[in-house]
Amino acid sequence: MNLNEDTYDDKTISNAKSRVLSYLENNYEGIDQVQLGDPYQAPMGSMTIDGTVNNDKEFSVSLNEDLTIASLAIQSDNFPEEKEECREKTCDY
Question: What is the tens place of the pLDDT at every residue in 19-36?
């Protein structure tokens, strides 16, 4: 995968979306539904995926080149809480 490209191949997109979904489900309480947009290259060069959880809680995830989660930006009030065991460290995903 080359993060300097504006487009990503289907396998990379599928893997990235799977990682984001797994991250959310393993680190946050009450994730019932996740909708993910198509990945795009952010101005700083990282792959970014925008989405919603539970129909209306918006977020944006930046991924590292190895498709690990670099950051999660929560853009809505009342976003699901982090699981207690995942507050001090990121839980496996």
Answer: 999 999 999 999 999 999
